[in-house]
From TrEMBL:
Residues 390-498 form the Beta-galactosidase 1-like first all-beta domain. Residues 30-343 form the Glycoside hydrolase 35 catalytic domain. Belongs to the glycosyl hydrolase 35 family. It is an enzyme of class 3 (hydrolase). This is Beta-galactosidase. The keyword rRNA-binding does not apply. GO terms for biological process: carbohydrate metabolic process. Keywords: Glycosidase, Hydrolase. It comes from Zhihengliuella halotolerans. GO terms for molecular function: beta-galactosidase activity. Its EC number is 3.2.1.23. Pfam families: BetaGal_ABD_1, BetaGal_gal-bd, Glyco_hydro_35.
Amino acid sequence: MTIHDAGLRPGPADETTPPGPALTFQAGAFLRNGQPHRIIAGSIHYFRVHPTQWADRLARLVALGVNTVDTYVAWNFHERTRGQRDFSAWRDLGQFIDLAQEAGLDVIVRPGPYICAEWDNGGLPSWVTRGRPSAARCAHPDFLSAVADWFDALLPLIVERQASHGGPVVAVQIENEYGSFGDDRQYMEWIRQALRERGVTEFMYTADGPTPLMLDGGMLEGTFAAATFGSRAATASRLFRERRPDEPFFCAEFWNGWFDHWGEGHHTRDAADAAASVGEILDLGGSVSLYMAHGGTNFGLTSGANHDGTHFQPTVTSYDSDAPISESGGLTQKFWQLRDQFQRFTGTCEIESLTTQPRTVEPLTATLTRTRGLLETLRNCGEPVRSPTPLTFEDVELDAGLLLYRARPVLPSGEVPVTLVGLRDRAHVFVDGVLRGIVSRNDDAQSVTLTGAGEEVLLEIVVENQGRINYGHLLGEGKGLDAVLVERRLVFQWDHIAVPLDRFTPADLGLAGWDANEPDHSEGAVAAATFEVAEPLDAFLALPDSGKGFVWVNDFLLGRYWERGPQETLYIPAALFRAGENTVTILDLERLGDRVELRAEPRLGPPQEHIETFDQQ
């Protein structure tokens, strides 16, 4: 049975003859409206940049010397709950594209549905992968049905802004680096057809790393093939031109920097080396898009995670990526060196009107005041859901945040191991309100040793979702616990309290009022500090001596912090402040410090030189 036999239409048929695309190619070179052209592009993700800064960041991109901006579309940024789609305010993709046109830029849109991007679940909503992660990114009827509905809502915003309609959209990517994931040709052809039948008439392309394995899985006959890599341009160019001798060489993602994981180094790349590699691409006659030109921030709980086959690797809140335009909009040394390369092809760009560094607040320090203990807070975040066995995040329809598990097992006398089976990702284990251990999925054994007296105890386990995996075969993996063992005996009869922190403001912490008056001796807590800000300006937030947790600025969830680094400060866009009094609220899981600091400079950790190659992915 084919996907069409199953009734899964790619999209509505269009009987009209579409106009020709703005971008074409001939004899191994790009043309734009029939004239010789190089795509000189940079990636900016609208979902990682506060909308009040979109125009500024696009202006900085123009000053870098590019002629095109490319952006992914994060499905789960727009449709957290199936059928409830939002394209307004921060999610107004159309407005971002319109601003790019006003800045004089062409636009490449990468609608996925999968995007990777170190973004939670690779951009797929958790409801799409819930219970059937293996059905994602293939021609499974359930997945195609969800994608079809999503494309029905999304693509009109893109189609009406195509160059053929007077807009700036000149290219649309088909899926994303599919060859490093799977080999379902039927699925890739379905995505291509779905785009076409919903009105995409501009240039379409696939993008994959330059290895035979990746190209065999990701390339489509009759569709342009672009590359993604961070080095060895000549090797990549040779491989692509062997396979597609008539096509221009296009590096659709040049990794001029890299992202960071908690507990690892802060990745940087020498500016001269990055510029030299870009120059090599251009000297080979190629086109290029910087990934990232401006990285932005994984605000809230949007950062994803990786798994290297041995260890789970959650991504930090910053997505600075050592980009030429820094997380706060500053123009770095890399900016100037890349600009010199681009101006050989795009000419001199206006820059005098731009400040090279953003204005920031005067450094301030405020005292943190504890308002409520960790367990007391979590117990009051909602009504408990009862189940004989532990439920997962997906079972209670919890996308991100924390899940509090509560049971009353009898602990035998003496020392006894308590094992968390299928832990994903990190757990704090409390007995009668006292922290008895912290367990990570990366630990050799997911257990703590408790001392019992043959009596019933209150066992509470706080499980944290540290970000859904965004790359590889573990995409769509669930979160939470599968079972708990006291020695070899299963624990049954659980209460669960879901804590969707990304849907909470500080006022929501503890509003439910459910309180069993049980002891809370946890070191973690909710605390707050207030600042007087004369003028809203950018700032960088530090939490000295606090352990691990989540921070809000006024009512906005800024993101995660963790003392293990490498990231030490969190970027606060000026738009999150107001003139006068401002409140910073933190929910710390482990240890509450005594103060909050607003700083004028970021600290992302000691630099660690990193060049990512296509065969390392």
